[in-house]
Amino acid sequence: MKDIYQVIKRPLITEKSNICREQQNQVTFEVTRKANKLEIKRAVEVIFKVKVLKVRTLQVAGKVKRIGRNIGKRSNWKKAIVTLSKGDKIDFFEGA
Questions:
Q1: Helix H or strand E encompassing 55
Q2: How far, in Å, CA of 47 to CA of 58, rounded?
Q3: Whole-angstrom Cα distance, residue 13 to residue 17?
Q4: pTM surpassing 0.85?
Q5: pLDDT tens for residues 46-68?
Q6: Could you tell me which of 65, 62, 66, 45 has the C-alpha nearest to residue 54?
Q7: Which of 25, 65, 75, 93 is deepest in the core (most CB within 10 A)?
Q8: Which CATH code for domain 4-84?
Q9: 11-40 b/e (C-beta count within 10 Å ≥ 16 → b)
Q10: pLDDT surpasses 70 at 96
């Protein structure tokens, strides 16, 4: 990966990720499948101007979906759980 803005696709806003964000200062992102932990760490630090302590990644298998008699599969994707240093914070809903 050369461009840091292509590493992070979107933040994952779920109940579990909100609990982790509030209690353990962890933020969850969907990232490019080819990105490694160092690239993810660098991208988060530059884009959001925070200090990253740890990055955990996992591959998420796409679900098999069916519409009528047609069967398809969603694509696989990669999730990154980023632990921020104490005092740093990323707000996705600043205006709300």
A1: strand 52-60
A2: 22
A3: 6
A4: yes
A5: 999 999 999 999 999 999 999 99
A6: 45
A7: 25
A8: 3.30.70.330
A9: eeeeeebeebbeeebbbbbebbeebeeebb
A10: no
